[in-house]
Amino acid sequence: MYKKMKKVFSMLTAASLTAAIAACIPASAADLAKVEVGETVEAEDLTLNGLEVWTSIYNDQVPGYSGDGFVYLTNGSIEFEVEAEEDGMYEIWTSYVQILDKEEPRQQSIEINGTEYTCQAAYTNTWQPLKFGTFRFKKGTNVVKLTNKYGYAAHDTVTVKKAELPDLSVASSDTCDKNATPEAKGLMRYLKDMYGSHMLTGQQEIYGGGHTQDSPNGYSGEDLLGY
């Protein structure tokens, strides 16, 4: 009898530990819905966290959606994985409506592998395409997460496709200004060589009286350009 009780206790302990370990697994390691490049899927078929499928927005009907309904992106997220065959630039689109504000767009947020970007969802009471942006995907698995940043919008479908970038292989890297400095000409050549392969970012902050030696931060515009 004692051996049987000991065996049962061991099994219960193992089950409890398994459940505890599973609960500690981060969300990024969970099984997410998959979207293939070039595919359009119903938003309700993706991984929904804290969200439900709607067929109307309270008393407002929004006919024209496909599938069983749409996902109203409120206090939750839509997540999925994209398997990219190669490093490169990809576009993410949704079919959406936004009926909250005719004057001010609602901010929607997208995370690509943990890096957040935002886009503006203008007012529309009919389903329209919304481009979240063009993003760099790494070869292999990429995790995408849609949330609202400020204000709600409804999303019916999600599309992932390879970005169609202009062919600059035949474009000239010459500057339009014949009197441009050697540094400007070098920058133009660099931008042309890097186009479609990398992302360049920059930021300039203006504090108080601006970037002058007399400003509180003590930085000048030349100082910043030297960084």
Secondary structure layout plus pairing:
Layout: H1 2-24, E1 34-35, E2 39-42, E3 47-49, E4 53-54, E5 56-57, E6 60-61, E7 70-73, E8 77-84, E9 88-98, E10 106-112, E11 115-121, E12 124-137, E13 140-150, E14 153-162, H2 182-194, H3 221-225
Give keywords.
227 residues; alpha+beta; 38% strand; elongated; disordered C terminus
Gist of the model:
The protein is an alpha+beta fold. Helices cover 18% and strands 38% of the residues. The protein has helices at 2-24, 182-194, 221-225, and strands spanning 34-35, 39-42, 47-49, 53-54, 56-57, 60-61, 70-73, 77-84, 88-98, 106-112, 115-121, 124-137, 140-150, 153-162.
Describe the structure.
This protein has helices spanning 2-24, 182-194, 221-225, and strands at residues 34-35, 39-42, 47-49, 53-54, 56-57, 60-61, 70-73, 77-84, 88-98, 106-112, 115-121, 124-137, 140-150, 153-162. With 227 residues, it is an alpha+beta fold. A hairpin with a 2-residue loop joins strand 10 (106-112) and strand 11. Strands 1, 3, 8, 10, 11 and 13 form a six-stranded mixed beta sheet that branches. Strands 2, 4, 7, 9, 12 and 14 form a six-stranded antiparallel beta sheet that branches. Strands 5-6 form a two-stranded antiparallel sheet. It starts with a helix and ends with a helix.
